[in-house]
Amino acid sequence: MRRMIYAYPSLFLVIGLLVLWQIMFWLIGRNALLPPGETIFYLVRLLQTVRFWGHLAETGTAFVIALAISIVAGLAIGFALGMSRTAAEVFEPFLLAGNSVPKIALYPIVLLIFGIGMPAKIAFGAIHGIVPVMIFTLTACHNVPPILIRAAASMRLKRWDMIRSVLLPAALPDIFSGIRIGFSLTLIGTILGEMFGSQRGLGYLLMTAIGLQNIQVIMSVTLLLVLVAATVNTLLLAQDRRLRNPGGQCL
Amino acid sequence: MRIVLYRLLAVLLPLAALEILCRDRIILPLTLPAPSLIVQDLWSVLKGGTFNAAIAKTLTNVSLAIVLAVTIGAAAGAALHRARTLRALLEPLFSTYYAIPIYAFYPLFIIVFGLGDAPQVTIGFMLAVVSMIVSTLAGLDSVPAVLGKTARVLRLGPVETIRSVTLPYAAPYLFTGVKLAIAYAFIGVIGAEFIMSSTGLGYEIRFAYDNLDNDVMYPLILLILLIAVAVNMSLDHWERVLRTRRERA
Question: Which of A6, A81, A104 is the best substitution to test chain B (most B C-beta atoms within 10 A)?
Fold first, then answer.
């Protein structure tokens, strides 16, 4: 048994969580929770309706655009700061502070600037996602061995060539970690954005379900979000580890 | 010194630009009042005392979440360090934990705990506790095995061992854990207040937004930013002091 757990921890974890969920259901009761089986059944039924796919497409579009903005802008700012010691030293405290600020408090400002709808959701997702991408890119640039940079300088590489053929490959593992965390935070930000100023999307669905105390919708949408977030993160984490020890066995 | 000057410029220049844009009505006051006005409003809001109850409520809930997360997280981390099988089982949960949109569980907490302070504290606690557990585990992993053996050879009791071997080694990791826990507790509690509750700073901001009351909304947002940044910066400073003291020792 013990060896089995060491071999497939995720499998046993999922089983354990399902059992825990069922026990919670027995303890708390039907007016607050649904059992796992029924939730999955209801989620499958939701997935067969056209309206649900509309919400899903809305959230998906907002999320993809927000993620693209987070990654591109985060990399650009991270590299710009990473290539100059002074700039990095000046701005690093701001980035770290940006990480610890409850960004949800900024949401009204985003709404006032962009109005209710798609742009506000995208902006809110991007605000969440861009911070880790910037911080990890900046750190990654600093962790590049100085000898590589000196070699590149002695070969008189142009700024862009320097990024493309020296900084990017050397910093890739750290940058990938930043993108992985950025992915999760962008998803969280997009959903949060939809919970307020929005008429469509999964966040909106959750918010109306809270108002109506519709436990079926709350549970199945939450389950869907957790499944998607956990699956993608697990895949990215596997890739992350592969990047960190190339050639070796992946952990 | 030059760096500090640049940092100051990096804050002041955008602020000055905003001030000019707002005063010239290129940015309308309905979108953003001039920064100087926001500061003035914050001062009068704080002096008027209308929101003292909300501020106190938020800070109490955040502190509660921090204390719970740090104590339970450290205890759970120490226990998991011993229970290897359970740790192997939970490791995948820890590595995906922060990818899960925890706010999605908020409606469930409301149904289970009712509309009091418990759901907000729970969200703050749940966000914070895992970073404390993971940091504790990392800290305990960092203690070299040989030191544990030395302690046994010297017949140190468990309390002595923790005090003179484990803690000094694990302290930097524990500190990182506490720092993260504090940031997450703020994010969790204020976010939960914002989504659905009837008290606290998050709720007051939402209420002011719904009523387009910019004279209240922007000062309160500024207040939250100031608190978060101040706490974060003082912890950073403290961490740096501790680190230099260690290096000197």
Answer: A104
